[in-house]
Specification:
The structure is a homodimer. Helices cover about 70% and strands about 0% of the residues of chain A. Chain A contains nine helices and no strands. By secondary structure, the first copy, chain A, is mostly helical. The structure holds a DNA duplex (30 and 30 nucleotides).
Chain lengths: ~200, ~200
DNA sequence: GTTTTGGTGGTATGGTTGTACCACAAAAAC
DNA sequence: GTTTTTGTGGTACAACCATACCACCAAAAC
């Protein structure tokens, strides 16, 4: 059985093309043709590596959440050796604010997927709930460690909501990234002891 | 010039059909045909009253934001004669949490429009920013009246974000409406003096 | 060297979508 | 009573979409 190409690499290449295409003109406008063109391959190849469009979209969603997790991990490592809860919480929440063009594209597509999953049964399921739930528990633990509140779970939910809400408002052009970051700082300063 | 039918009524009827159709299977899946079928009229009639699909979508969006405003106004009146800032703020923010089926459909479609407007130039513009900005200023004024914070604007932004974020998480099935309401209460209790 | 088999291109097909076009009825205008 | 004008239906059309199908090449297996 001859194996000339790395399947996983090809798949990743095509998925990245999809993400670029979706970032440019919206997830709703990606077609097999547009993805193929963006990836510089024939439509047949996209079919070959992802039988159907639904599977392509599913694979892209998986890759997206994976990368999202990596971004958060990187942020956490970038805080250095600081284990102060406030630093950790801040790092995690700031990741949800789209600053550079890449993270903007990232969060746009992620939000499009999330909204789509409400009505599209193929995208539904726990795929979109696992990561946020995990994150919420993580934040609650950090808040407990900081000893800043007597109801860490509710406070964690507030943090998740404010982070998502701010991110969305930046996407919509309602707020600048800087403004969102400032608001987040202000809120953290209110509920947490100073660094 | 004969005028047998009330144009505005017909338009409203068709738009409502669109909203029902969108609530059922997503804004992305509404077509001229599906709207016509839901409204019980021919496709030609939809064309007649809204030349193009783009104009139909635009009109539906306008009607949606109008109705959203009405819902908030109704909530405000329902608080009775209470002019306590906390009551007012609570009433306004609770409107963003989808509880009954109608408000769920409402917010789903509204969110779909918002996300769509990021990439679709036809939907873009200040249409989606005016109402939230107005609301933000209103909340800031109420916070000032309550004298609960020294930076009412930032606190108002946090309120808007947490409200939008909670609403979205309920839509995604991540939280029950009751849970979201409880969290909102908790947060308001934290930043505002008791009633 | 022949035969599988993985990888690729091109193209046909059936279905759907938005919109344009044609016809017609009936109320109003004159 | 004739002529506009408004409202309505049906249908045709061009574009596009996802997918199925056919052909071919080259590397590997034997």
């Amino acid at each position: 059985m001859p194996k000339l190409v790395d399947h996983e690499e090809r798949r990743a290449h095509i998925i990245d093309a999809l993400l670029r295409s979706a970032a440019a003109s919206g997830l709703h406008s990606v077609t097999m043709r547009s993805v193929a063109a963006e990836a510089g391959v024939s439509v047949r190849l996209v079919q070959y590596y992802f039988d159907t469009k639904e599977q392509l979209l599913l694979a892209a969603m998986t890759r997206l959440t994976t990368r999202m997790g990596e971004r958060i991990q990187r942020r956490l490592r970038a805080t250095g050796a600081s284990t102060a809860p406030r630093d950790i919480i801040e790092a995690v929440l700031l990741e949800a604010v789209p600053t550079d063009e890449e993270s903007r594209a990232f969060h746009l597509i992620h939000t499009e997927y999330a909204v789509l999953s409400v009505t599209d049964p193929a995208l539904a399921g726990p795929a979109f709930l696992a990561a946020p739930n995990e994150m919420e528990a993580f934040l609650a633990a950090q808040l407990t460690a900081a000893g800043a509140t007597d109801s860490p779970r509710q406070e964690a939910v507030v943090l998740m909501a404010v982070s998502a809400g701010l991110g969305l408002s930046v996407l919509l052009g309602q707020r600048t990234p800087d403004d969102a970051v400032a608001v987040l700082h202000h809120h953290l300063g209110r509920i947490l002891p100073a660094r």
